[in-house]
Amino acid sequence: MTLEATVDSSPVGAAVVVLDPERTARVSVTVRNDTSTVQRVKTVRISGTALALTFFAYDTAVPFDVPAGESETRTFPLEPTDLGTQATGLLPISVEVVDTQREVIASLDATGDIRGSLWSVYGAFGLGVLVLTALSWLGALIALARRRLPANRWQRAMRFLPAGIGTGLIAVFTLSVLRLVAPSPTAEIPFIVGAAAVALLLGYVTPHPGEQQLSEMDTVRIPRL
Q1: Which contiguous run of DSSP H or E holds residue 173?
Q2: Contact at 8 Å (CB) between 42 and 98?
Q3: Residue 111 near residue 48, CB atoms below 8 Å
Q4: How confident is the model at residue 215 (pLDDT cuts 50, 70, 90)?
Q5: How far apart are CA 64 and CA 74, in angstroms?
Q6: Considering only CA atoms, which of 85, 95, 88, 93 is closest in space to residue 112?
Q7: Separation of alpha carbons 96 and 47, rounded Å
Q8: Among candidates 46, 53, 81, which has minimal Cα distance to 173?
Q9: Which are the contacts of 44, defined by CB distance < 8 A and separation ≥ 6?
Q10: 3-state SS, residue 104
Q11: Residue with more model confidence, 213 or 16
Q12: 0.85 cut: is pTM over it?
């Protein structure tokens, strides 16, 4: 089974698909059946994911049969009226054709330009990560200033690791919301791994808390009477 699709005449997979909650999109799907049996299509699903999480999904009932060795095309309107509260920015999207057994029989991947709000679920997720990351950095730096970090270098490095991972996630989220780069494994992994490595290094090279205390002790010379 192969699938071709367009959204407002833009080919899915070849161009960025714009989804605006204030505008009805016209979706067209063409399913090619290269098997020896009739394939029964029940639903066309359009969904958006990021960081292995699904932030929106629209299932439209479009029942039709695709005879063996033939293709069928169906066109239908999509009204994503609640999309503004679900996501915003560039996101990976997929168009899937689902059969009567709820199995995906064909799919297409693309990048979607979601014209939603920063206060959507996706936006709230990013802001939540920002707050947690700020708290992680604050906790690690306060522990460093108060000489409460572990004496072991690797344990000090692990103390900074969550803040580094959070920093990488924020970079991915920011590029997505600014419509510069859509989240994907090739984009996510370098940012997250790179930020985590920098945070580990910073934690590893922090001074030993005991050595700090010894270095600050003053030697008092008692004059001989």
Answers
A1: helix 153-177
A2: yes
A3: no
A4: very low
A5: 8
A6: 93
A7: 8
A8: 53
A9: 27, 29, 59, 60, 62, 74, 76, 95, 96, 97, 98
A10: strand
A11: 16
A12: no
